[in-house]
């Protein structure tokens, strides 16, 4: 599978997941996570994820304070898909980018629209991603797990597990 194919698969797995848990290092060294909605309509040529956040939020403060390493985790348990994305975050105040990423749902947090004074874009350039996409039905998964429990052997591969570096 080519890198473009794995990126397309990665996007397919996350595009409909409503929230990502975005984890960053707080200034006191602890890890903090925030549920954020991915604002992308698709991956751009830089394989960057975008989130609309408040400029005075904890995550914005921590990113601007120097530790820009983040992780965005996506889960769709109904479809048995799980994605972990690690990357470097930055803040972008471009009005053109905010306009491009704007959605009517964002108005609840940013009543001033894309020009809201408190709106900034959290951009996460993907350095590494890993996903698990289980294709087997729940019934087949249960059979494999029951067999493993009886035989003492781990269950055979269930679904696709890939890692990628853009």
Task: Give a quick rundown of the structure.
With 166 residues, this protein is an alpha+beta fold.
CATH class: Mainly Beta
- CATH architectural category: Roll
- Count of DSSP H/I helices: 4
Proportion of residues in β-strands:
35-45%
H/E series, N to C? HEEEHEEHEHE
- Roughly what is the average pLDDT, rounded to an integer? 86
**Estimated helix fraction:** 10-25%
What is the terminal separation in angstroms? Answer: 14 Å
Shape: globular
Number of strands: 7
Fold and architecture overview:
It is a single chain. With 166 residues, this protein is of the alpha+beta class. It has a single domain (3-164), classed as Pnp Oxidase, Chain A. The chain has four helices and seven strands; from the N terminus they run H-E-E-E-H-E-E-H-E-H-E. The protein has helices at 3-14, 58-64, 95-101, 138-151; strands at residues 20-25, 31-36, 48-54, 69-76, 81-92, 119-133, 160-164. Strands 1, 2, 3, 4, 5, 6 and 7 form a seven-stranded antiparallel beta sheet that branches. Mean pLDDT is 86; it is low at 138-142.
């Amino acid at each position: 599978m080519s890198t473009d194919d794995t990126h397309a698969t990665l996007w397919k797995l996350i595009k409909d997941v409503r929230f990502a848990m975005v984890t960053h290092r707080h200034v006191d060294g602890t890890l903090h996570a925030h549920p954020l909605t991915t604002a992308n309509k698709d991956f751009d040529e830089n394989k960057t994820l975008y989130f609309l956040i408040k400029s005075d939020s904890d995550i914005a403060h921590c990113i601007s304070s120097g530790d820009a390493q983040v992780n965005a985790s996506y889960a769709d348990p109904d479809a048995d898909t799980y994605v972990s994305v690690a990357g470097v975050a930055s803040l972008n105040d471009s009005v053109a980018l905010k306009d491009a990423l704007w959605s009517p749902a964002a108005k609840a947090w940013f009543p001033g629209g894309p020009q809201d004074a408190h709106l900034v874009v959290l951009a996460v350039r993907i350095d590494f991603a890993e996903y698990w996409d289980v294709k087997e039905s729940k019934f087949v998964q249960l059979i494999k797990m029951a067999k493993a429990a009886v035989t003492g052997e781990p269950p055979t591969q269930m679904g696709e597990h890939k890692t990628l570096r853009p």
